[in-house]
Sequence to fold (234 residues):
Amino acid sequence: MHSSAMKNGARFFNTYVQGMASPQVVEIGARNVNGSLRAIAPAHARYLGVDLEAAPGVDVVLADPYKLPFPDESVDVVLSSSCFEHSEFFWESFLEIQRVLKPEGLLYMNVPSNGDFHRYPVDCWRFYPDSGLALAKWARQKGFRTTLLESYVGHQDLDIWNDQVCIYVKDEAHAHRYPARITAEFRQFSNGLSYPQLDSYLNPQTRSQDQRRAAWWHAGQRMMRAARRAMGRG
Fold:
């Protein structure tokens, strides 16, 4: 797990889960690859990791990647970090998560908005800022009352990844239970949204961090070439 994914997971736990009483937490794509969210989860959480194969960190092996072996409305928190880009039909997984969440249940979704092609076993998707609202709209079309509480694109941290982080509550009627926001304290992000103001972005950017860095580099190169020409004329 890359550095920013671990840090964003910690922010979610501290902001949303720390105050829950013995929450049932299910992590989708729980295989421990260079670190796991389980290691930083609140100690009082009842934690289950699910994945497609037996591996360290996996408690339940799924027979079907789009079916979770849990009753309706039985889970307090679902985590999906660096997983949906590897799901061919992630929108089906999103609906299945809504099924198993309690009405006040939360989904933490961390997905890449950039980065290298990396297959586990496939690599299909990258997610832009509007994707968080689009998935909530998709769930509502299917009969749920899913609401985006907040989202943001985190800045890179010791690696190449810009994480698109989305946090949902299954039923908007319970949004008032979660007044705190990561984006109220954490500033290293672009294109953030915060319920109930979901119609305008915090720290809006049309270019990715990679594009901005490339533009700065090219601008610097142009300045250096201009300076050399000026010195040559002198």
Notes: The beta strands are 24-28, 46-51, 60-61, 75-81, 101-112, 147-154, 163-169, 189-194, 197-202. The chain has four helices and nine strands. The longest strand covers residues 101-112.
